[in-house]
Amino acid sequence: MADAAHVQLRGGRLHIPSAIYDRLLAPCPAVALLVQDGQWWLLPLHSGAGGLQVKLRNAAGDRVVEAQEFFRQQGLEDEAPAQDLELLFDAARGGFALRACWPSHSETTSGLPTLVRGPPVSK
């Protein structure tokens, strides 16, 4: 990807800016979240494929994915601090690795499980 694409994990929900949705996920109305090789993955799904609904959040076209159950299963409670995540496309897997964008002061203060800090994803 030429431009970095970021979403925010807040309250167990993935908040997706409209520009990112339009560029990378449209027209997919749903996504799947899964763990493979110690990495979180977001896979766009087409209509009728199930998954988690990508809901319209506001008039600006921002989207949200209600994913509290998935993140709780990964040890991340709803009250954890908000975290920016970069979407890294992997053509072989047909989806995006979710890579934490760590604050410069310390990785250990973020409250995120070690799982998000997996090995780099090849582009």
Give the CATH architecture.
Beta Barrel
- The overall pLDDT average reads 84
Indicate the CATH topology.
At1g16640 B3 domain
Number of strands: 8
Question: Which descriptor suits the 3D outline?
Answer: globular
Q: Share of helix among residues?
A: 10-25%
Number of alpha- plus pi-helical segments: 2
CATH class membership:
Mainly Beta
Structure classification: mainly beta
Question: Structurally, how many domains make up the residues?
Answer: 1
N-to-C span: 8 Å
Question: What is this structure, in a nutshell?
Answer:
By secondary structure, the protein is mainly beta. The chain is 11% helix and 37% strand.
Structure commentary:
This protein has an eight-stranded antiparallel barrel with strand order 1-2-6-5-3-4-8-7. A hairpin with a 2-residue loop joins strand 1 and strand 2. The chain has one domain: At1g16640 B3 domain. The protein is 11% helix and 37% strand. It is mainly beta and 123 residues long. It has two helices and eight strands, in the order E-E-H-E-E-E-E-H-E-E. The protein starts with 5 loop residues before the first strand and ends in a 23-residue tail after the last strand. The C terminus is likely disordered. The longest helix is centred in the first third of the chain and has 8 residues.
